[in-house]
Amino acid sequence: MARIEFTVAVLLLYVFFRDFRPSESFLTPYLNETKHFSKHEINNMIYPVWSYSQLPLIIAVFATTDFLQYRPIIWFGALGYIATWILLVFGKTVKEMQLMQVTYAIGTACEIGYKSYVYVAVPREDYSRVSLYISGAALLGKSMSALLSQILSDYSPMTYLDLNYLSLASVCLAMLISLFIQKPQYLAPQTSTVNPVPCQETAPPMHDAAPSCFTNCKNSVMMGLKKAKLSYGSAQTRRWAYWAIVTTTLYYMVDNSSQSLWKDLEHDKKKRFNGYVNGVEFLLSSFVSWILARHSKTIEKLPVTTVAVLTLVVSATTLLPTIIQNLYLAYCCDAVFNIIITSIITITTFKIAYSLKTDLYGFVVGVNVCVAGLIDLIFTFIFMDEHALSFNPRQQYWAYTGFAVLNVVAFFVYKGVSLIFFRSEDPNPDPILVEDGADEPLLGLDQ
Question: In terms of Cα–Cα distance, which of 200, 332, 312 is closest to 265?
Answer without folding.
Answer: 332
